[in-house]
Write a sequence for this structure.
């Protein structure tokens, strides 16, 4: 089955009383790719994932996973039958042994692959006879991953998978995730580890305050996103509003720094026309784009600057 | 296979419950003579069994453990952080709760049946006789009335978060109900008193002088009790089906 958009949301909204966790989120996750889901704490990532899994009901809007509606309980069952999920807290049943939990989980799925289970058991060095509650956080994460990956699911959703893992385990996980599309698994994962996301993700979905602020292939981000800095001899002039490609502008003394998502040449030309004495164009890493996109202007570490949205 | 998880969650309580009830019954049976000697008035063996097993000590164990068994569920899983894993399984919330309620109620039945096995068997070894039919009759009453204690706590456990909130509220409210039933004008309708039905006290199907069940069992009252317990479970299911986790 080949779907262009394995996950699709339309105006997906979730309010908890007055708090707006997710606001009219429109996004898509492409089949056969690895999509990094980024956002600050409380940006709405976990709420979005929980809505995709049917754990919480949308306030309005909706979406589909594998073509099944997320707000229909029966279709949600079908979604959960076909995808795998590793939650943020990795809460597994502490009273079961590793072997019992594997046996229990396996019983719910017809697509369980014992050869993968054996391979991962050996790879992760999980003790079969140990109670889950006696495992370290890292080992519990590995067990949760084993339970998810032993089925070669069509879609793997992970919420902060590297949290609590040591560097070696993170590297193992990264390698596993990088190989997943070859096995026919689409990966959708949230993470704060931007370096890892940049290494493995094909697409980036970034949300802030419940809204999508970036939904683009990483390759395209690398090609198009630039920081353009204009230096002026005197007080900087005002720039035209809604100039194509300018995402954010900050003024700092006699300098204007622009986050450009595309159209860099035209933006540079704009600087020349405004008599900029110094023009600098530099590529941006995912971390810088993340900070520029979601961080409040007051926290950017600059002095005497103010935000000018043009 | 979801029943296996429910079994794992409550097996310690079940085994401890059955063992506690069995040990308590054995203690009463093998110390019956000294207990009767210490009684303020002459007491028959059957009366002693009724007073110690069905009216106080052993019943209290059964009552408390029925409540403890009912205090688990999806909301408790939310508290301890395993609800994400459970709800990601391809199982509906209705099936999760009904399976949990069924396995838990089976445990209540197992505890209710324990005196019916222990008392008739062990009475012989202490030179006494206790009718298996009588013991089974009381087990039937325990099994049906226990469903209310269990299901009521099950509902509370899916209404309020907190590790022991449901247990505390269930015990407190059921004790308040027990005292309420002692109000004179309510005693005219004995079938309203679940604590009376469960041991036969002041009931037409129980002989106060012989301490034996007599006449037909209160089938209608027991069916009503089971129906109310089912409503409690149904309400818990409805609450969980619409809840955000």
């Amino acid at each position: 089955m080949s779907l262009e958009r394995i996950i699709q949301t339309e105006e997906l909204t979730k309010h908890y009383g007055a708090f707006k966790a997710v606001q009219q989120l429109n996004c898509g996750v492409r089949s056969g790719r690895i999509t990094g889901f980024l956002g600050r704490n409380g940006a709405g990532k976990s709420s979005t994932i929980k809505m995709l899994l049917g754990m919480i009901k949308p306030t309005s809007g909706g979406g589909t996973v594998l073509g099944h509606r997320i707000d229909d309980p029966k279709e949600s069952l079908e979604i959960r039958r076909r995808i795998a999920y590793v939650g943020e807290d990795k809460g597994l049943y502490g009273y079961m042994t590793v072997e019992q939990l594997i046996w229990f989980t396996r019983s719910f799925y017809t697509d369980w692959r014992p050869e993968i289970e054996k391979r991962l058991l050996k790879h992760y060095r999980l003790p079969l006879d140990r109670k889950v509650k006696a495992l370290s956080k890292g080992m519990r994460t590995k067990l949760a991953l084993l339970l998810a990956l032993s089925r070669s699911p069509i879609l793997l959703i992970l919420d902060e998978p590297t949290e609590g893992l040591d560097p070696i385990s993170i590297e193992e996980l990264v390698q596993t995730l990088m190989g997943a599309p070859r096995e026919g698994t689409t990966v959708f994962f949230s993470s704060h580890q931007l370096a890892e996301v940049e290494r493995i993700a094909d697409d980036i979905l970034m949300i802030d305050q419940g809204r999508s602020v970036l939904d683009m292939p990483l390759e395209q981000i690398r090609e198009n996103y630039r920081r353009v800095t204009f230096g002026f001899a005197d007080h900087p002039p005002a720039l035209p509003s809604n100039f194509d490609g300018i995402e954010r502008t900050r003024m700092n003394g006699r300098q204007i720094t622009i986050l450009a998502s595309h159209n860099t040449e035209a933006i540079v030309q704009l600087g020349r026309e405004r008599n900029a004495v110094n023009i600098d164009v530099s590529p941006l890493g995912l971390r810088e784009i993340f900070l520029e996109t979601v961080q409040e202007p007051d926290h950017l570490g600059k002095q005497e600057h103010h935000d000018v949205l043009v | 296979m979801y029943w296996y998880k429910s079994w794992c969650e409550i097996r310690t309580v079940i085994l401890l419950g059955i063992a506690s009830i069995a040990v308590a019954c054995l203690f009463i049976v093998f110390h019956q003579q000294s207990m009767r000697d210490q009684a303020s008035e002459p007491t028959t063996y059957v009366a002693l069994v009724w007073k110690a097993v069905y009216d106080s000590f052993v019943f209290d164990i059964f009552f408390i453990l029925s409540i403890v068994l009912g205090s688990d569920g999806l909301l408790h899983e939310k508290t301890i952080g395993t609800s994400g894993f459970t709800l990601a399984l391809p199982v509906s919330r209705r099936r999760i709760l009904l399976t949990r309620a069924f396995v838990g109620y089976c445990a209540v039945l197992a505890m209710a049946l324990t005196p019916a096995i222990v008392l008739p068997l062990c009475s012989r070894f202490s030179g006494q006789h206790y009718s298996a039919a009588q013991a089974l009759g009381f087990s039937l009453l325990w099994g049906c009335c226990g469903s209310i204690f269990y299901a009521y706590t099950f509902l509370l456990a899916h209404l309020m978060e907190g590790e022991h909130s449901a247990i505390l509220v269930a015990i407190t409210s059921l004790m308040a109900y027990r005292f309420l039933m002692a109000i004179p004008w309510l005693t005219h309708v004995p079938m309203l008193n679940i604590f009376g039905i469960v041991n036969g006290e002041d009931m037409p199907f129980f002989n106060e002088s012989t301490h034996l069940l007599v006449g037909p069992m209160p089938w209608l009252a027991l069916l009503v009790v089971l129906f109310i317990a089912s409503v409690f479970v149904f309400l818990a299911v409805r609450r969980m089906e619409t809840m955000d986790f």
About this structure: Chain A has a mean pLDDT of 88. Residues 225-307 of chain A form one domain. DSSP finds ten helices and 15 strands in chain A.
